[in-house]
Task: structure prediction
Amino acid sequence: MHVFPGLPRSCPRRLRSAALSVLAVFATIAALVVGVGAPQAAAASPLPCDVYAAAGTPCVAAHSLVRALYASYSGSLYQVKRASDGATANIGLLSAGGYADAAAQDSFCSRTTCIITEIYDQSPRHNNLTVEGAGGAGAADVGAPADALPVTVGGHQVYGLEISAGMGYRDNSTSGVAVNGQAEGMYMVTSGTHVNNRCCFDYGNAETNNKDTGNGHMDAINFGTECWFSPCYGQGPWVQADLENGLFQSDAGYSENTSDTGTGPLPFVTALLKNNGQNHFALKYGNAQSGGLTTTYSGGEPTTSGYSPMHQEGAIVLGTGGDNSNGSIGSFFEGVMTSGIPTDAADNAVQSNIVSVGYGGATGSTGTLNPGSEISLRATTSCCTGDYVRHQDNAAVLSPVTSGSSSLDKNDATWIVRRGLADSSCVSFESRNYPGDFLRHYDYRLHRQPMDGTSRFRADATFCPHTGKSGTGTSFASYNYPTRYLRHYDYNVYIASDGGSNDFDSGTSWSADVSWAVSSPWAP
Result:
């Protein structure tokens, strides 16, 4: 996608295990579509590429950092490179058809940092994605930090891919991907909480030379809040089709569906695009944690010349536009591309499988400072023992939360303890309902912000526990300002010293204000 409006290989493997016959796959699809026999997280088979293969539209690309997308896949998911010595390691699965071995990443990257350098294609096509080079609209990208997006999937602690501006992945020499008007489908699981209005958080078919080569030379899912053609309804983010030189919500470009106001801040979103390459494309989305798919558009190709038929070139892009327009941000957990247009029944079965694995489910640990534990932080000062640290409009505040509080308030007041981003002997706090967002201080005040991988962010988001200064609870020293502790003052949250020039450094009740009760989470 051009930024100016108006201008514009892992080992061979079988698609399914021998024990999974085509008839069995279709039977399972039928059961899923009518809502019967949905698989549980521990036995989610068939997996998305098994479903699509059985429907006659096999995957030609299958990328995921969190799980296998074929029931029989047992290879690597992605590669990480550590900063300390430049060594690399492949991160695989706990078992065939299962979930990522995140512990292997934690061990390999211990006491240093890692970036993701390659995302392996699980399909027999071996369309692996590597860090994207320079393009017509952006300098060469950098790899995403490997630990920026911890998440629970299928009851396992794994990592997703968190894209900040200047990050992206690509394969310009692919096998089997649609070209020159051929039909294809694709989906990705992303997040509605980590988006912006810059070009272009895409996953799908792009140019092979990292440049804008004209209308119809892309066919990729776009997810964000950029409204290319007005009007767009609501605040977004929207699932759109990046077909080059436009983010399309319909054949007219702009939204013709007043009910499509975007997904809002859903933590996990299924985004789906289908295109026959000639005269029809469709857009769908769903909550990746529950329910089915909603079709927001199904109709003709864009009426502007160049889109009917399409002129896809067959490269695969993730995180940027086709010409490496790389100002966007976004989250990616899994995604596939198919040969041919999948049936609606197959799409529905895939959505059922996605829901079944439990994206963002409970970690299984609560109320402690052990990594992976879900907690709420309660004030211990006598004035405020019913108040908790919660995020509101991106800032950390102190607010009362009770059993009668709204689900939103309870989620905002729940945090997941993670290994300290700057020091594993300390802790960091990830938002429960904004995956990949952490508590960090900026200008002494605490905010909820997405982890960008920088050393500054890592230090600002790391806190070291000590016995409570008041003699009760726990106090948390700032990693990079060790004489300053997490403190509530006038219902805001700061890192504060015991006495100083700022109001929030006042010595009055300082010991109590910096002492916190680590309690059970309001929203496990």
